[in-house]
Specification:
This protein is α+β, with helices and mostly antiparallel strands. The chain is built from two helices and six strands, in the order H-E-H-E-E-E-E-E. The longest helix is centred in the first third of the chain and has 18 residues. It binds zinc ion.
Length: about 110
């Protein structure tokens, strides 16, 4: 994954949102990263601290929450945490969460 471009898009999204609210600064960005995305949270955190410097987000905190992978069988609704392909009922399981990256909220003032 390209953490730098991911981080840039997060920051851009935050800055656009701040502009919309005519905010003077960004305090916090809450981010959810699915454990199934292979995005390295450490890298995102590192890049964020670097690229936020010349923006109104310079004093902001990036709060990253890791969302565990969750899978569910569409037939018997049994849930799994590991990437098991076949359920006990012989039906392939579907991924219900853990494959997304979401900016949950942006705190501005
Ligand atoms: Zn099943």
């Amino acid at each position: 994954m390209h953490e730098l471009s991911i981080t840039q898009s997060i920051l851009e999204q935050a800055l656009t949102e701040a502009e919309k609210h005519k905010a003077k600064k960004i305090n916090k960005i809450k981010l959810q990263i699915g454990a199934g995305t292979a995005i390295a949270a450490d890298c995102v955190q590192f890049y964020f601290n670097t690229i936020k410097a010349d923006t109104i987000a310079k004093n902001s905190v990036l709060d990253i929450e890791m969302v565990p992978v969750k899978l569910r069988c569409p037939k018997c609704k049994k849930e799994y945490k590991d990437l098991e392909i076949i359920c006990d009922c012989k039906k392939g399981v579907e991924i219900v969460s853990g494959q997304e990256m979401i900016v949950e909220y942006i705190d501005v003032e």
